[in-house]
Specification:
The complex is a heterodimer of chains A (about 270) and B (about 280). With about 270 residues, chain A is α/β, with parallel strands linked by helices. Chain A has nine helices and ten strands. The chains are: A alpha/beta (about 270), B mainly alpha (about 280).
């Protein structure tokens, strides 16, 4: 159990001087499950404040790549470097602190359905609280934390749902809860794994637009995996194409050719 | 084909086991025909099913509360014993469920060997707690402490605590792990992941099961009356021994009403908080 000391409420720091957006780097990273490489020899750099889309068919290794970036997966070969710190050299506690500053929006959202929206959002900050502080935050939240959660929910468009039970919300609304939870972490980077797969196509564009604009206004590094190429091209200046665990291309969206896209999805 | 074969074998084994048990006990349909005396008891007992006593069937000392009042008091005492026993059982259940779940010992915790030993010890303790029935615990505690309410309360609390711990720990281990994984990705500690990612997912099932066990505790509390605790069982036995079948039905109906009331109440609570 760690006792990370924090001011009574950390709400004020939301408006204070924000830390620099995260700088993420993979150097020759391979990750294998049971001898099969999900990601192979990947080298890439996401600069502080950049917005990058990972594109490619399902099973190409996009999720694995994202999970390597925040250290929930350890590479079999190679190193992952976040803000100049090699994750492989960190202790479990140091790694937790790195993860606490990286918001991750999971493909299946992975909220706790039978808790209130407020509790799911406040859970975003568990990584910075001691166990007793987190008990208090989950059971008797401070007014300032609720106000911050409310402001974030307002930004994602569902402020009125603050005290609803999460599983009474629609799929699209629950997705906004997942986004709010990641933002409540006050992250320096957002990693979003196929955030449009859980909403209907009409909402997909709104979701991508919301995440890119929030990242811009808050100065966050954004990495999003997408298999919708049109959305990737429209909202991201830089695309990384993945196929069968390998990086096929990594370049400005405008320079990616149709031939490259075909190659990405071409079934052998 | 192979699965179908295994299933047939299993079904056959169950049928054979049943037949062997019947033969071993010498059970025959003829035994279900009651003797003359038994038939008399049965008929006079069921004759009162629709006419439970509203007054005592024999003279009672001056100032004795009317039987309906007595039935209500006995019902309340039955619930009180059950509530006391169940509160302790819940405490024990939660306390032992945590180290009895495998999830508690997973996830970055050092000293894994120690964890396995502690898990095994905890599983053994709860196994011993629930392997003895509450009536047998009652016999033991009656011998140790005499006829005090505490004997009945801990006789309920120990086996129920063990059962709750076992079921709770399995519910925690079987809960969906995706929200726990999400909290881990956000930097939460193993302790936080367990209590805020895993336990909440198991909580609806856990509370439904606890309500069910409370209903069982009420019945157990009633039966403990046979040993002399003043719950419904005490009066049922007394009236039955005196052949006052009308009174027996009054107390039985009180017990049925009690169980129905708890069922309705727990259902309402569950709809409000869980489902």
């Amino acid at each position: 159990m760690s006792f990370v000391t924090l001011p009574k409420s950390s709400a004020s720091s939301a408006e204070g001087a924000a830390p620099a957006p995260a700088h993420l780097e993979l150097r020759g990273v391979t990750h294998s499950y049971n001898g099969h490489a999900a990601v192979e020899a990947a080298t890439l750099e996401v600069r502080s404040g950049e917005a990058v889309a990972l594109v490619g068919p399902s099973g190409a290794g996009k999720t694995t790549l994202l999970r390597l970036m925040n250290g929930t997966l350890r590479p079999s070969v190679g190193t992952v470097v976040v803000d100049g710190r090699t994750l492989g050299d960190l202790s479990e506690n140091e790694l937790r602190r790195v993860r606490a500053h990286i918001g991750f929006i999971h493909q299946d959202l992975d909220l706790v359905p039978n808790l209130r929206v407020s509790q799911n959002v406040l859970a975003g900050k568990l990584g910075r609280l001691s166990f007793f502080q987190s008990l208090r935050a989950m059971l008797m939240p401070a007014r300032a934390d609720l106000e911050l959660a409310h402001r974030i929910l307002e930004r994602v468009g569902i402020a009125e749902k603050l005290f609803e039970r999460t599983d009474t919300l629609s799929g699209g609304e629950q997705q906004r809860v997942a986004i709010a939870r990641a933002l409540f972490q006050e992250p320096t980077a957002l990693l979003a794994d196929e955030p449009v797969s859980s909403v209907d196509p009409a909402r997909a564009r709104d979701t991508v637009a919301l995440l890119t604009s929030i990242s811009r206004e808050r100065g966050l590094t954004l990495v999003m995996s997408l298999h919708n190429l049109e959305l990737a091209r429209e909202f991201f200046p830089r695309l990384i194409g993945l196929r069968e665990g390998r990086i096929l291309f990594d370049q400005a969206a405008a320079q990616v050719t149709d031939a490259q896209f075909h190659q990405l999805y071409d079934l052998k | 084909m192979k699965i179908g074969g295994t299933r047939r074998m299993t079904l056959a084994a169950i049928a054979i086991a049943g037949a062997v048990a019947f033969v071993a006990l010498g059970l025959t349909p003829a035994q279900l025909v009651p003797g003359r005396g038994g038939l008399d008891v049965l008929s006079s007992f069921f004759a009162r099913a629709l006419s439970p006593a509203v007054a005592y069937e024999s003279s009672v000392p001056e100032g004795t509360a009317p039987i309906v009042v007595k039935a209500i008091q006995a019902s309340l005492r039955t619930v009180t014993f059950a509530v006391a026993g169940m509160s302790l059982a819940l405490l024990l259940g939660v306390l032992f469920a945590i180290p009895s779940s495998q999830s508690w010992w997973q996830g970055g915790r050092p000293r894994r060997a120690l964890g396995t030993a502690a898990w095994g010890a905890s599983r053994t303790v709860i196994m011993l707690m629930r392997s003895v029935h509450e009536l047998l615990w009652a016999v033991l505690f009656l011998a140790a402490f005499g006829l005090t309410p505490f004997s009945a309360v801990i006789a309920i609390a120990i086996p129920y605590g063990g059962t709750l711990a076992k079921i709770f720990s399995e519910m925690i281990d079987e809960a969906p792990r995706n929200s726990a994984e999400a909290l881990r990705a956000a930097g939460a500690s193993p302790l936080q992941i367990f209590f805020f990612g895993l336990v909440p997912r198991a909580l609806p099932d856990m509370s439904a099961y606890a309500f069910y066990r409370f209903e069982c505790a009420v019945r157990a509390s009633a039966v403990l009356g046979f040993f002399g605790f003043e719950t419904l069982g005490y009066y049922i036995r007394g009236s039955f021994d005196n052949l006052h079948y009308g009174e027996v039905w009054t107390y039985l109906y009180a017990l049925v009403l009690l169980v129905v009331a708890i069922d309705v109440w727990s259902g309402a609570l569950r709809r409000r908080f869980v489902a």
